[in-house]
Specification:
Rossmann fold; 7 helices; 8 strands
């Protein structure tokens, strides 16, 4: 599978490297252009290009940029694409978003609104970058970690789940994008290593309006 990465920070690089190491192809991009990614290209063994190049390249596209930068993306580039949205909203970093602050919207729901022609799947947002390669396990391993996804398009979710399985992770489908809040920032399942049954329980018990205050970093 070809993975086009929009964003070449910690998450983008880690997913690209894991993908390449497991027989997939990856292309990294960022807002500064491919010349800024020469050393990353060598380290990750991935191709580099512009954002438009990476989106066109990917069978699936990883969106791994700060949430505030989503509004700068050209929606036309993403028409018809499966987009794995790894973005998270951090009030101290991003522009204030009242609809996210009061829980009336979800981050990936807003990404889907902006990229209206894409098939957005919330994915890769609930794992720390340092764990992406470290926690991958072969299928059937007793300590295989599960990661959550959410999305409105069943075929897109199926494609993303297949990719996750090939990279060493079980998957728990949390439902449509409207349920993506269950593994947003500081929820009980956010960035915590869990098996499939444990993750299902944490997602079910997420609690609207309740957030762990940094406990996920411990």
């Amino acid at each position: 599978m070809k993975i086009g990465c929009v964003g070449a920070g910690f998450i983008g690089r880690a997913v690209a490297k894991l993908a390449v190491d497991n027989g997939h192809q990856a292309m990294l991009s960022n807002s500064r252009g491919p010349r800024s990614l020469t050393s990353t290209m060598v380290a990750v063994k991935a191709a580099v290009g512009t954002v438009a190049d990476a989106v066109a390249f990917g069978d699936v596209v990883l969106l791994a940029i700060p949430f505030y930068a989503v509004a700068d993306l050209d929606p036309a580039l993403f028409e018809g694409k499966i987009v794995m949205d790894a973005c998270n909203y951090y009030p101290g970093r991003d522009d204030p978003v009242p609809a996210l602050d009061d829980g009336s919207a979800t981050t990936s729901g807003m990404v889907q609104q902006h990229l209206a022609g894409a098939k957005v799947v919330k994915a890769w947002n609930a794992i720390l970058e340092r764990d992406i390669e470290k926690d991958a396990r072969a299928a059937g391993a007793a300590d295989r970690r599960a990661l959550p996804i959410a999305g409105d398009d069943l075929e897109a979710k199926s494609a993303v789940a297949a990719l996750f399985h090939s990279l060493g992770y079980d998957v728990v489908d949390a439902g449509p994008l409207s349920e993506g809040w269950r593994f947003e920032r500081a929820r009980p399942a956010y960035c915590v290593p869990l098996g499939k049954a444990e993750l299902e329980a944490k997602l079910a018990d997420a609690g609207i309006g309740e957030q762990a205050d940094g406990a996920w970093r411990q």
